[in-house]
Write a structure and sequence with these properties.
Helix content: 25-40%
Radius of gyration: 23 Å
Distance between the termini: 40 Å
Largest sheet: 9 strands, mixed
CATH architecture of one domain: 2-Layer Sandwich
CATH class of one domain: Alpha Beta
Length: 522
């Protein structure tokens, strides 16, 4: 029999505020009812297992759709609203989405993408989405499976790949229980409020939102991150938990001292961060300011986490990205497939108690990511210390991490190479004081071409989301390639990092989306 409520707080305190946003607030009772009505609407349009995509800013409807997906047993695809219509259309078609929920700001892109992908139903927040809900029953849908998520992450081919996680499925109750137990792992406590400071299209923020809700924490939504506003919300709503990325830490630390000193942050109990390496100076400064409530995590869309390091653990093991959850085993494997001893770097492999992930429609990629014994990898390179803490020492791919954004050079290179003037190209990350890394490119031009870097950047901007595009381009006579054709990208990248420490690897959220997903460019 289906449960009456998703959250214990609804039964114990239904009239308390559950969601606070610039566009309005809901009580726990209102939140649950809206989620049920939305679920019944999805059930009218989709069978359990059907796919619904969401292209929207941090609106209250995002929370509504998250709950509806759990109730309806559908699979939700979060879409980065920075993407262009062709990029959105590719994900819609590849995932098999039949319903797209969008907001007025992104309706034009959403409708263009849906038409190109053959998605029959587009629901717009504030109009057709609300009309569908108003016609639905407030009784929970008939008992069925709980909903899951399909996350999209680009690979070395540059095309986003849908990932089917192994930790999904089961009943509605089991889905909610997993959220609560994972929140326990990160240190979430019952009661208080959770600040949503990052875009909900990213894989991690919806999870942390659900960790908070399952612990009876009201959700306070930021539509767009601002460092001073975030501190004001923490103080005003007595925030107990939040999820952020290092760029947001840096922005708060750079606020005028008088703003920082007047903000009461004593209510905070759990401040999780991931998605990008955190500079050591910023990590120490945040622990000193907020107290030992800073929790670092590591993982990926495929389920290579969660790993976790508390403030105390990080201070005792500087640079670690944490120790694995009890259901996760981490091993280090050498070039010949041998397990390596403590302290020796190699490719990190993972074994989950619930199995390995699959890449949607790509059995070859699924196969190539696994060992014969079922362990899988996303090609991160690192090592383990004697206490089982994981350290990252390199990237298996030339991933660029910019302000919490995972940017895959292959996708940008593919776009640059389409320009008629570009003969050869390479894309890589260079130092950036604010974002950690900036997208940079080097190109060689066809004989006789007079194309300027600005023209090539505009070419990219017309075809890719803005944050994927190079900020600057070097025009060279030739790129450093081996006789085999293999590009020696480090020869282009390393001069920019002389005297500086390049982030060794992505401290990615449990789940990265769309190949490039920002948690601060909201």
């Amino acid at each position: 029999m289906a449960p009456k409520f998703l959250f214990e707080r609804t039964a114990s305190d239904p009239e308390a505020v559950a969601v606070i946003s610039p566009r309005g607030s809901w009580t726990w009772a209102e939140l649950e009812e809206s989620g049920i009505r939305a679920a019944n609407g999805l059930r009218q349009l989709l069978e359990p297992g059907g796919v619904v995509a969401v292209l929207a800013r941090n609106r209250i409807e995002w929370v509504q759709t998250l709950l509806a997906n759990v109730w309806a047993g559908t699979r939700l695809v979060p879409l980065n609203w920075h993407l262009t219509a062709p990029e959105v259309a590719y994900i819609l078609k590849d995932s098999g989405a039949q319903v797209l929920v969008t907001d007025p700001e992104d309706e034009a892109v959403g409708r263009e993408a849906a038409a190109a992908a053959g998605v029959p139903t587009v629901l717009v927040a504030g109009s057709s989405f609300d009309e569908l809900l108003a016609a639905q029953s407030s009784e929970p849908p008939a008992e069925g499976p709980g909903g899951g998520v399909i996350l999209y992450s680009s690979g070395t081919t540059g095309r986003p790949k849908g990932i089917l996680r192994s930790d999904q499925g089961g009943s509605v109750e089991s889905v909610i229980d997993r959220y609560r137990r994972t929140g326990d792992f990160y240190g979430y406590e019952d009661g208080g409020a959770h600040l949503v400071a990052c875009p909900l299209y990213h894989a991690a923020p919806p999870g942390h939102l659900m960790f908070g809700l399952t612990h009876g924490q009201a959700a306070v939504l930021m539509e767009r991150f601002d460092a001073a506003d975030a501190l004001d919300l923490i103080d005003r709503h007595r925030i107990t938990s939040t999820h952020m990325v290092p760029t947001q830490f840096v922005r708060m630390l750079r606020l005028p001292e008088e703003i920082r000193e007047r903000t009461d942050v004593s209510s905070l109990r759990t401040v999780c961060h991931g998605a990008a390496p955190c500079p050591a100076w910023a990590k120490r400064a945040m622990i000193e300011w907020f107290g030992p409530v800073i929790v670092e995590y590591f993982g990926s869309s495929e389920g290579t986490g969660p790993l976790k390091a508390t403030s105390e653990e990080w201070l005792a093991h500087p640079g670690t990205v944490g120790r694995p959850h009890p259901m996760l085993e981490v091993s280090v494997v050498g070039e010949n497939g041998e397990d390596l001893p403590v302290g020796e770097a190699g490719t990190l492999y993972f074994r989950r108690a619930d199995g390995a992930p699959e890449y949607l429609g790509d059995p070859d990629k699924t196969r190539s990511s696994r060992l014969a014994d079922g362990r899988f990898t996303v090609n991160d390179v690192g090592w383990l210390d004697e206490d089982g803490f994981v350290f990252l020492s390199d990237r298996g791919v030339d991933l660029i991490i910019s302000g919490g954004v995972n940017i895959y050079p292959a996708e940008v290179e593919a776009t640059l190479s389409e320009h008629p003037a570009v003969e050869d190209c390479a894309v890589f990350g260079i130092p950036d004081e604010e974002w950690g890394e900036a997208v940079h490119a080097a190109v060689t031009l066809s004989a006789g071409s007079t194309a300027q870097p600005s023209e090539l950047i505009e070419w990219c901007r017309g075809r890719l989301a803005g944050f994927k595009c190079p900020r600057a381009i070097d025009v060279l006579d030739e790129l450093p390639r081996e006789a085999s054709g293999k590009l020696k990208k480090h020869k282009l990248r390393d001069p920019y990092w002389e005297g500086r420490t390049r982030p060794a690897a992505a401290t990615k959220a449990p789940g990265v989306s769309q190949g490039a997903d920002s948690q601060v460019r909201s």
